[in-house]
Write a structure and sequence with these properties.
This protein is rod-shaped. The protein is an alpha+beta fold. Helices cover 49% and strands 20% of the residues. The chain has 19 helices and 19 strands. 26% of the residues are buried.
């Protein structure tokens, strides 16, 4: 031991010093508190850690092969001694803090005691402990002598200058922290370990006193009584062993999140609480508003009698949907991409996001549920913002029942029109049959009496014409009473001619009919039953308008019917010289229930159904122009393809 520590023992000592840093800090704090030194030292643990690290670093940096016993000599150069340099630096720091030499040396003895205590804590045999204690004594001697050397070489003026400068820095630091404290927008209260208020910033004073100037509590001695609720919670918290706690506090119509935190003081000088009040009134109001909005959204989603989807337009995801969606897709899978829609079955598919982006409103589509199972629906989209993101609510009404009832209403209206002309059909067929019978009788008499061949031929021609008239009426009736639901490719010119034939009894007594059918025969895909209903309604309305005018002035009117095929559509015009439509009724012509006929004679849905069939079902157009007392003209166009 005369020469130092062996490599093995030096390595073991270094290992214990490096692994027990926290223990060394707690040990020196134990001695400092017990002997009263913490009243003059830092309150933060990291300051004590710095002193332990400073003492251990020279030893940890020394190679294990160089742990020689450093004896003391009368002419040792301590400022250049690597072990004594730490003492020289610490001398300056403690002078600046106002600590005198004797006080520092007293505390330093306990640092030495702390390191010696470590040797008995770790697992070492007594011979090794003795060797390490001797080495550590010489180490601490050199640090201590370095400290004294650095202190004593300075004159009184230098020491006074250092202390003056240190006091100035301390004053500036205190002003900085006070300014920071007073500048905080959050109210802050500092208490002692009994809960008595020692300090509060301007925000806290204003909260509880209503007014305060910066620094009025610290410098001016302004007395402010805090809320009894805060005071009670502080005292309750101090009885626990928790490091921090928080709760909600309402004061002067404001909501605060109150956080109580124990002071991080290892010295014991400042044992108390730091209480921060964070104003969360706006946050609570926002949260409340969001909750109310969410509740409103849920109530809307589940309250509406329709399927509703919430679409995130940025991520293109369905983020929510109501139970009506599950009902609509009963037995079918509903994917995250959302449903697919078609304008016409078999047409181009459109995603729910495409239609939402177009802001559909009261538009009819077919929704593809699964395995080509389609349903007619009516769509509405509403733009909303959730969490600062653009969303769309797509509302989907199942109109299957509506379409069924509509179809039934159309059928009933169709029967109404047919019923209106049904009484004339037997008369037409009966008259033609009677004339045919008379002609056949004349033919029989002629054959029996030997009438000439010319007369017989005329009788045969007349009979054939009457038979043709009967056949034409029957064919025309058959073409529009099949009530077909499927589409077919038909010649609309021929269908229009058949409807003219069936309505002959309605217009013949009052008007002359002129027809002009375009050349060519182009098949148009449509519903024959529905298009027959359109032509019958328009012809019956024209006949009615002419009859009403005839009843007034006894003048025979006219109905002009024309049609033509173009490359893209079939166009038909039906005009009459009847009573016309009043200008005030123009906007109501295609409304359900509107009619200018006598009450009880019709349902008033004829033109509404015509509009629905032409525009909605066949994607065509229908227009009219009219002059009261002079007549009306309807023009309809049906796409060829």
């Amino acid at each position: 031991m005369e020469r130092g520590l062996s490599n093995k023992l030096a390595s073991e000592l270094k290992k214990h010093l490096g692994n027990n840093e926290d223990w060394l800090i707690k040990r020196i704090l134990y001695y400092a508190k017990k002997q009263g030194y913490t009243a003059y030292t830092s309150t933060l643990e990291e300051a004590w850690r710095a002193s332990i690290v400073g003492l251990s670093t020279p030893l940890l940096n020394t190679p294990s092969t160089s742990f020689w016993l450093q004896e003391l000599h009368p002419h040792s150069d301590f400022p250049s001694d690597p072990y004594a340099q730490f003492g020289v630096m610490e001398a300056k720091k403690h002078r600046e803090r106002g600590i005198d030499l004797i006080m520092f040396l007293g505390l330093f003895k306990y640092y030495r005691q702390t390191y010696e205590d470590l040797l008995f804590k770790v697992d070492m045999d007594m011979d090794d402990i003795k060797s390490c204690r001797t080495f550590l004594k010489r180490y601490f001697d050199r640090v201590e002598l370095g400290f004294i050397d650095g202190w004593m070489k300075l004159g009184g003026d230098t020491i006074n200058h250092e202390m003056t400068e240190a006091n100035r820095q301390l004053t500036n630091e205190k002003s900085l922290y006070l300014t920071t404290l007073e500048s905080l927008k959050q109210p802050l209260i500092v208490t002692d370990d009994n809960g008595a208020v020692k300090l509060m910033n301007q925000a806290a004073a204003e909260l509880f006193a209503g007014h305060s100037a910066p620094g009025a509590v610290y410098y001016g001695g302004q007395k402010v009584n805090i809320s009894p609720v805060i005071e009670k919670n502080i005292k309750l918290f101090l009885k626990t062993y928790k490091v921090s706690d928080s709760y909600t506090f309402v004061y002067n119509n404001k909501v605060f999140d109150v956080t109580s935190t124990r002071m991080k003081d290892v010295s014991g000088k400042f044992i108390g609480l730091a209480v921060i009040l964070n104003d969360i009134t706006d946050k609570r109001n926002t949260e409340s508003y969001l909750k109310e909005s969410e509740a409103l959204r849920k109530a809307f989603m589940e309250g509406i009698d329709a399927a509703a989807l919430v679409l995130d337009m940025e991520t293109q995801e369905v983020v929510d949907f109501n139970t009506r969606v599950e009902d609509l897709f009963s037995g079918c899978s509903f994917t995250e991409e959302g449903p697919v829609f078609y304008e016409n079955i078999g047409g181009e598919p459109h995603s729910v996001f495409d239609l939402a982006e177009k802001s559909v409103n009261n538009e009819e589509r077919y929704i593809d549920l699964c395995r080509e199972h389609f349903k007619p629906v009516r769509l509405f989209s509403v733009e909303v913002w959730f969490h600062n993101k653009r969303h769309k609510i797509m509302i989907i009404f199942d109109i299957s029942r509506e379409k069924m009832l509509e179809k039934r209403a159309n059928h009933l209206q169709h029967l109404e029109v047919l019923g209106d002309i049904a009484s004339s059909i037997p008369v037409m067929i009966g008259a033609a049959t009677e004339e045919l019978g008379d002609t056949i009788d004349e033919l029989q008499k002629g054959l029996a009496g030997g009438v000439g061949s010319d007369v017989l031929i005329d009788n045969v021609k007349t009979a054939a014409g009457k038979a043709s008239d009967i056949s034409e009426v029957i064919t025309a009736l058959h073409s529009i009473v099949q009530y077909e639901t499927e589409s077919a490719c038909i010649d609309l010119n021929q269908l229009l001619k058949n409807c003219i034939t069936l309505t002959r009894d309605k217009w013949y007594p009052y008007a002359d009919v002129q027809t002009s059918f375009g050349n060519g025969q182009i098949g148009v895909v449509c519903s024959p039953d529905e298009m027959g209903q359109v032509f019958l309604n328009l012809l019956v309305n024209a006949a009615y308008a002419v009859r009403k005018k005839y009843e007034t002035d006894s003048g025979r009117g006219s109905i002009i019917i024309s049609s033509r095929y173009t490359g893209t559509f079939f166009e038909a015009k039906i005009s009459d010289s009847g009573i016309g439509i009043k200008k005030k009724d123009y906007k109501r012509v295609f409304d359900q229930g509107f009619s200018t006929k006598e009450v009880g004679s019709v349902t008033g849905n004829g033109l509404a159904i015509v509009y629905d069939i032409v525009v909605k079902r066949h994607k065509g157009t229908i227009e009219f122009k009219s002059a009261e007392g002079r007549g009306t003209e309807f023009t309809l166009r049906i796409p060829v393809d």
